[in-house]
């Protein structure tokens, strides 16, 4: 049996149209889908939402999804902006590319592997990172 979210939403919408209460919808879904169904609060929320507004059972798009913005073109654009001006801020990059600051930070640190040293972004090798950590630990131990 198909136990996808859209199928379960259609089931909830159908039973709501028949006038079933949310608790009875939950019990019937438990019978039909066994362990492969949504939680009780999700069923109640869906039923309430279909009662108020929604007629579409598909997932609605959410604004600002990082996987949509984080593509190779955006990554290369961020890299180019950093190479042109190493003192550029994440806010300035976000404004120029029309993406969130969190996405910019994710691209800079996770995708490009850049860190910030003396107010300039640089790409450190693993040996350089290890050496810097060693110096920091030595300085911390001395003080």
CATH second-level architecture of the domain at 5-51: Orthogonal Bundle
Characterize the main sheet: 2 strands, antiparallel
Order of helices and strands: HHHHHHHEEH
Tell me the helix content. Answer: 55-70%
> Which CATH first-tier class of the domain at 5-51 would you pick?
Mainly Alpha
**Overall pLDDT confidence:** 77
Helix and strand composition category:
mainly alpha
Which runs of at least 5 residues are low in confidence (pLDDT < 50)? Answer: none
Report the span from N to C terminus.
66 Å
Question: So what's the overall shape?
Answer: elongated
Within the CATH hierarchy, at the fold level, what is the topology of the domain at 5-51? Arc Repressor Mutant, subunit A
DSSP helix count? 8
- Rg, rounded, reads 25 Å
How many individual β-strands?
A: 2
Amount of beta strand? under 5%
Question: What is the spatial order of strands in the main beta sheet?
Answer: 1-2
